[in-house]
Amino acid sequence: MKKQAFLFGYGLKGRSLAKGLKEEQFRLKIIEADVLLQQKAIDEGYLDVKLMDVTQDSALERLEIDEESYIICVMEDEHLNVFLTLSLRSLFPNTTIVAISDSIYTTQKLNMAGATKVIDLYQVSANRIHNILRRPVATKLLDSFVSDACEISFREMTITEASPLDGKMIEDIDFAKEGVLLLGMIDVELSHKFIFITSGINHKLDAGDTIVCMGYNQDLDYFEKKMKLEYTL
Amino acid sequence: MLSELIVKIAFWLHGSSAYKRVKGFFFDLLSNPDYPYKKYLDSLMIFLILTSVGILVYEVRNPVPEWMDFYDIYIVSLIFLIEYLLRFWVYSDVHKLIVKEYEQSRFLHKPFSIYVPMKRALQEKLQYITSPSAIIDLLAILPAYRPLRILRIFVLFRVFKLLRYTKSINQFVEVLATKRFELFTLLFLLVFIVLTAGIAIYVFEESENPSITTLFDAFYWALVTISTVGYGDISPVTHEGKAISMIIIVTGIAMISFVTSVIVSAFSEKLDELKENRMVEDINKNEAFIIICGYGQMTKMFLRQEVKMEEDYIILDKDPERVKQAVKDGYKAINEDASRHDVIAKFNIDYANITILCLTNSDVENIYIALNAKSLSKDIRVIARATDERMQKKFYLAGVDHILLPNEVSNMMMLTAIKQPVMYNGIHAILTGQNVAHMDEVHVFAHAKLIGKTLEEIDFKAFKILLIGIQRGIDGEFLFNPDKEMVVEENDILLMMGLKISIAYFKEKYARSYL
Questions:
Q1: pLDDT at position A190, please?
Q2: Partner residue facing A119 (CB), from B402, B413, B430
């Protein structure tokens, strides 16, 4: 089943996000408060575009957003965006809400308004400049992960009970030989936090744990099959 | 016959790259403030000057040992003479004038005369000889001629030579030069008053006052009085003389306060500029530095990311308000327009490794700055911010090395956050360089311990480091998850992930060079 994403705002940020989400095969619903931007979304080929006053809770309620969906708040008007995040959170307490912020102050406000994740436009960009300056090779590599063009990528995989990895210690497995690198894992026994392999603790792998590996896509495919892992998305 | 020979020599010099190189080297050494080795020559010259003046003072009361005299006469003067001749040589190119004139006359089919270019060359060289700094240089050499004792005092001109090697005195003179008109007017007024008052006191008191016997005494008195110094060795005795004193004392006070205010205002007007120039000079001393254009959100964020920047940096902004804010926030900022040619040219583009970050929020401006920088030197690295991807092509055409699309970067993060929520945290940690997942590059420099070792021999696990890949050379191929048998070579870049301290320890242990 395709996942549902609600995109609030079709401004500069919204436009490229919409494109990305469409490519990722999301069922996309665009909501705009501005007539011109709504028209623009329709003109650019999006079918499910709705014009509404996002300050009205009753209108938001009618959207029927369930817990499995994603809400993305990228309204052009910063104040409206924070207000919308707050309204959505109060209406849908368990749905994932992500927002993009234009400044540190807004980031804080969006966090307080209940956004699950806030991406600070300037922070990530500033980081990028640092990375270009300090770690050009790493940057090139990281770039390629997120753009699907490259053969090397990250993959999250869950260990099944049938997997030969079940019950083994991490140190006993030579991942490099299989052409993949183990970056880290989520141990359901301990916590649901992501643990980097470099933190230096030797974990025992159990069924249900999620491991994150890096490698060429074909090697990852092969590894997944061989170890009877489940590709989680 | 002779002229033919001269033309031949001129053409030979014109075509000789060695000659050009040597001359360029001396020009840089003597006159190019950005040349890294110039400071050594400057220091040497300052040392020579100070010792020479020191000897002059010492000599007043003590007999000078022979070696000191020898040093003062021959070594110092000889070096000064060489410097003078070198400056004379590099000031202009005679051969160029000859070649140009020769080619022009060939083109126009008119008879070539060696005298025309020679006259121009002579004029140019004369221009150098008569320039104030060259005159001071020449006078500073004169004390070497011992038979004339009076020439000893020219050692003091060596002090004036300091002007050449110290910037602050130069700046002082430059600032005063901006008020040339006011200062000259005042000087003229001063001369006028001293002359009239001097003549008046001479006329009134020459017969009455025993201390005023010549016109020179009268002028001396007038100047001492008007300057409010008033030694009192000569004082008026007649009523007329006292009246004149009163008048010139009053005008003297007025004039001194005027001169003071002119100088103070000249400095306060130039103070910001002087400070900014000093900042540029300071940053130019670095081998590598970053020029950040625009002090907006992005720049603030960028600077806040790192507690201490590895390279030196400077912020340029057109808006004085924002520059004020930046200075208030504790950053080095100057009020300049980076899209202007002369602004970027002020930086040490020939010798330093410069990175320019165009972070203003206007695409037009960022492209313009990038073009400006690239037109000055292709070696300047430019990282520019663009508002949307349609602009990307234009930025690449402008020669920008890296383009930053804030929207794209944040969208990428957003999509990852939705698609792979767990990995989002991972990538985020890596991107922001958080402690636990520090991704770093280790450059293998010449003579590092790593060279020649296979990857198996290097125990990455012991350091709790994950080797992700190796890049061969700066622009080489990136090898992901390399084979254990692979041997590390010079100039490799090892990409690894681990705790910050792990990587720091690894670098200390392995990547440091033997030397």
A1: 65
A2: B413
Q: Do A154 and B420 touch (CB under 8 A)?
A: yes
pTM of the model: 0.67
Supply the CATH number for residue A207's domain.
3.30.70.1450
For residue B504, the distance in angstroms to the closest alpha carbon of chain A comes to 14
Q: Do B441 and A152 touch (CB under 8 A)?
A: no
Tell me how far CA of residue B229 lies from CA of B57, B211, B220, B224, in angstroms. 27, 18, 12, 6
Confidence of residue A233 (pLDDT cuts 50, 70, 90): very low
Residue A6 and residue A88: Cα distance in Å, rounded? 11
Looking at B436-491, list the stretches that DSSP marks H as alpha helix, in order from N- to C-terminal side: none
Query: What's domain B433-511's superfamily in CATH?
Result: Regulator of K+ conductance, C-terminal domain (3.30.70.1450)
CATH homologous superfamily of B287-409? NAD(P)-binding Rossmann-like Domain (3.40.50.720)
Domain enclosing residue A97, as ranges: 4-124
Residue in A96, A126, A152 nearest the CB of B305: A126
3-state secondary structure string across B290-316: EEEECCCHHHHHHHHHCCCCCCEEEEE
What residues contact residue B258 under an 8 Å CB cut-off, 6+ apart? B186
- Assess whether pLDDT exceeds 80 at residue B306: no
CATH node for B180-271 = 1.10.287.70
Cα angle B83, B87, B88; round to 5:
115
pLDDT, residue B66, reads 84
Q: Which residues of A touch B412 (CB under 8 A)?
A: 146-147
Q: Is residue A169 part of a domain?
A: yes
CATH of the domain at A45: 3.40.50.720
Residues 303-342 of B with CB under 8 A from A: 304-306, 310
Chain A contact for B301 (CB, 8 A cutoff): yes
Q: Does B468 touch chain A (CB under 8 A)?
A: yes
